[in-house]
TrEMBL record:
Organism listed in the record: Hibiscus trionum (Flower of an hour)
Annotated protein name in UniProt: ADR1-like 1
Domain spans labelled RPW8: 1-149
Keyword Zinc-finger applies: no
Keyword Chaperone: no
């Protein structure tokens, strides 16, 4: 994002204020001012979307945006002259009115021109209709129904409603009191640059911080300049410092790519009066980390959220989160357990109150334990009460007490559901887990199909043991499995780790590192003389060299999760000693793609069925080096892949003879697909998404006779589809949405007799095949999703095909999703 979007956004905002004043005071310029207000109001969301997306623009579009920034700057100067001009100077006012009319035309041309389409192509997290995004998931679930009326989409909606209802219950005196006290510290005290929220895990600290950020008075005070960062136990300090410094200086692109210009240490300087800024640091665990993230600059405030109380020299004022009162606790528990805020007549009032009392006013414990007891018989409740009473030894800390209490909600789960919950400890704290990764893992190790995996996912969500979210990550985002991810409260992750790490280290079913470290745990090294019988192994480190690993044997390991943050990474040699490995997940949380070394270990992965690579340089796939005969799913996200697709040495059907699903997402160096991909006869799903440089598809794409899903959305440089697409006799779903330079659909598309759905939203330039093309042969077509500009091209088919539904979508420029 080289475009100086921060200044463009600031200029546009200031210009709007001036224009509103002109509209009220100047008769000659009122019409132009009103029109400019309308145009800039439409433009501001797009400028902000670029600002928060982290997308790197091409040189041509960069220059266009830079020129427009200068136009806005000139407009601001003109507006000031209009306001400064006296009413008596008629000649000068007429000149200024003509200049305002000229400025109005310049801005109008920019807003209504093709630039809007280019911007939308680059902003890959633009949301449309929630129902439509989740409809993509419906293809995988088809007619599956869970619970009282739905599946993942309904589960997400239920969770959103539940969260709002919970806030309504606890948002009385306690939350309002906390909000008012914290607001006074950050708004009413100019002498405080750092303030804090302190409370034990599960007490609602993050909920309070989020409510502060959404508060209209706070947003107005800081002019919406609020940055929310989750620090966690194992933070990437350089990346966090770069994010903060980039936000402060208006160069947010640096916050994702460049640490060279960030001042070292706790910065203190005397800038002039810059814009007010609030940075929220959530889940801070260490004083040394906090000191590295504080920038003591005038008009800049830091809100620290932590379960630890830091010295007053660093955080002078702190609000301690109060636990819920008895009546609030009862209401929240009843809402989770009974779906109402009071004890129903059929329930044992004494028993309910005893269990509520054991939750000790902790919102998270009340919600989780309440949900786990929902619809259970009274004997079940009595047993839970006894377990809660036994789980409170006097010598333990509040944190351990909470874990023991909440373990009750897991102990009563169905065995497979419990195992899936414990698997969540394999992923780093405070990170979104791509749904695709989780489902693939569960399918491979628990002997279930995808439908049952989704059912388990929704059950865990309904019991408040995880959260389903529509992904809105900034900068390093990727839309995996149709923009749905899983998150988990850090206390719930601690619970999964607490339950998984019991017993002898060599006999644990899951061998997990609780947080990122510079080396492998000493406990592992001390026990290398015996094999480790873990089914899941999860490693979380920084850069790893060959000498940093030690030999370990994993005869039963089926899943290996490698979480790291570095620019280079030596793959662990012990992969050779994982003969049963079925799923390998490699995720780099660093700022740039990491170079993988020791890729030769892949030659021995005969049982590997699922491979997920994220933010790495994919090595060259030469035939003798890599041969994965049983691999079925390959996902490459935010990777550098062009070097791996050398057509002179690449024989994809030889390397991946059973590949059924290929995902390439946000790989910005992908220009062409290798022609040998057309010979992978087993391929059923091909997703090339958010690859902004992809310019053409292989001419022989039609050879993929088993292909059912072809997803090409957000590939703006793609100008045409190959005519051979008509030979994809099994194709059921075609997605070309946001392919803004795609001009027309080939005539041969009329041959796709199995095609059920076309998604072509934001493809306003696409022309459907001429009326001479027998589109009526699309016997299976049931749905076309498109923009209003091109809908007429499909309307005439609705009469000939009564089962066809042409759905027109509206362009939506809301930025509400950024609040997540």
């Amino acid at each position: 994002m080289a475009f100086n979007d921060f200044f463009a956004g600031e200029i546009a905002t200031e210009l709007l204020k001036q224009l509103v004043t002109i509209s009220r005071k100047s008769c000659l310029c009122k019409s132009s001012a009103d029109n400019l207000i309308t145009s800039i109001d439409e433009l501001l969301p797009i400028i902000n979307e670029i600002k928060y997306s982290g997308v790197e623009l091409s040189a041509i579009r960069q220059s266009q945006l830079d020129r427009f920034s200068e136009t806005l700057r000139g407009g601001l100067e003109l507006a000031r002259k209009v306001l400064a001009s006296g009413r008596w100077n008629v000649y000068k006012n007429l000149q200024l009115a003509r200049k305002m009319e000229k400025l109005e035309k310049q801005v109008s041309r920019f807003v209504s021109g093709p630039m809007q389409a280019h911007l939308l192509a680059d902003v890959h997290h633009m949301r449309f209709e929630t129902m439509e995004r989740f409809d993509r998931l419906e293809q995988r679930l088809n007619s599956m129904k869970i619970g009282a009326g739905g599946w993942v989409e309904e589960a997400v909606k239920r969770m959103e409603v539940e969260e709002e209802a919970s806030l309504g219950i606890i948002g009385g005196v306690g939350l309002d009191l906390g909000k008012n006290k914290v607001k006074k510290m950050i708004i009413g005290r100019d002498d405080l640059s750092v303030v804090g929220i302190w409370g034990i895990g599960g007490s609602g600290k993050t909920t309070l911080a989020n409510e502060i950020c959404k508060d209209n008075q706070v947003r107005s005070h800081f002019n919406d300049r609020i940055l929310f960062l989750t620090v966690s136990q194992s933070p990437d300090l350089q990346q966090l410092r770069a994010r903060i410094w980039g936000f402060l200086t208006g160069n947010e692109a640096m916050g994702y790519t460049n640490n060279l210009f960030v001042p070292q240490g706790m910065l203190q300087c005397e800038w002039g009066s810059g814009p007010r800024t609030l940075v929220v640091l959530d889940d801070v665990w260490s004083l040394s980390v906090l000191e590295q993230l504080i920038f003591r600059i005038p008009t800049y405030k830091t809100l620290v959220v932590s379960r630890f109380k830091f010295p007053t020299t660093v955080v002078p004022e702190v609000y301690k989160v109060e636990l819920l009162r008895e009546d609030e606790s009862l209401s929240l528990f009843c809402h989770s357990a009974f779906g109402q805020t009071s004890i129903p007549p059929t329930a044992n009032e004494t028993l309910v109150k005893q269990i509520v009392n054991e939750c000790k006013g902790l919102p998270l414990a009340l919600k989780v334990i309440g949900a786990s007891l929902r619809d259970q018989p009274e004997m079940y409740w009595a047993s839970a009460k006894k377990r809660l009473l036994r789980g409170e030894p006097i010598c333990e800390s509040h944190e351990n007490k909470l874990l023991e209490r909440m373990a009750i909600s897991v102990e009563y789960l169905n065995k497979k559901v419990k195992e899936c919950f414990l698997d969540l400890g394999s992923f780093p704290e405070d990170k979104k887990i791509p749904l695709d990764v989780l489902i693939n893992m569960w399918v491979e190790i628990h002997d279930i199909d995808e439908e049952e995996a989704f059912a388990i996912l929704v059950e865990l969500a309904d019991k408040n043991l995880l959260t389903l979210v529509k992904d809105a990550r900034v900068g390093d985002a990727y839309s995996s499995f149709y923009e749905i991810c899983v998150t988990q409260h850090d206390v719930l992750r601690d619970l999964a780790l607490h339950l998984s790490n019991r017993g002898d280290v060599n006999e644990r079913k899951r061998l997990l590192m609780p947080r990122r470290d510079t080396e492998l745990p000493r406990e592992w090294e001390r026990n290398t003389d015996q094999p480790f019988n873990a089914q899941i192994v999860s490693v979380h480190t920084g850069e790893m060299r060959e000498m940093d690993w030690f030999r370990m044997e994993f005869p039963k390991a089926e899943v290996l999760v490698l979480n790291f943050s570095s620019t280079e990474y030596f793959l662990p040699p012990f992969i050779d000693d994982m003969p049963k490995l079925k799923a390998l997940i490699v995720i780099n949380y660093g700022t740039t793609e990491a170079i993988l070394q020791n890729f030769s270990v892949f030659t021995n992965l005969a049982c590997l069925r699922s491979l997920w690579l994220e933010k790495v340089w994919v090595p060259q796939l030469t035939n003798p080096t890599v041969l994965m005969k049983n691999l079925q799913k390959l996902s490459m996200v935010l990777c550098k892949v062009n070097n791996s697709f050398n057509p002179s040495v690449l024989d994809l059907p030889l390397i991946f003879p059973r590949l059924s699903e290929l995902i390439i997402d946000h790989c910005d160096d992908l220009i062409k697909l290798p022609s040998s991909i057309c010979e992978v006869n087993s391929l059923k799903s091909l997703s090339i998404t958010n690859c902004h440089r992809l310019c053409e598809l292989p001419a022989d794409l039609g050879m993929l006779k088993k292909l059912q899903i072809l997803r090409l959305y957000a590939c703006p440089e793609l100008k045409m589809l190959p005519p051979s697409i008509g030979e994809l006799i099994g194709l059921k779903y075609l997605d070309i949405s946001q392919c803004v330079n795609l001009r027309c659909l080939p005539r041969e598309i009329g041959k796709l007799a199995s095609l059920e759905k076309i998604d072509m939203r934001e493809c306003s330039q696409v022309m459907s095949p001429s009326t001479r093309t027998p589109l009526s042969n699309l016997k299976s077509l049931r749905r076309v999703i498109c923009d209003d500009e091109v809908s007429w091209q499909w309307r005439y088919l609705e009469k000939a095909m009564p089962d066809l539904y042409v759905q027109v979508v509206e362009k939506w420029y809301s930025l509400d999703w950024l609040d997540g």
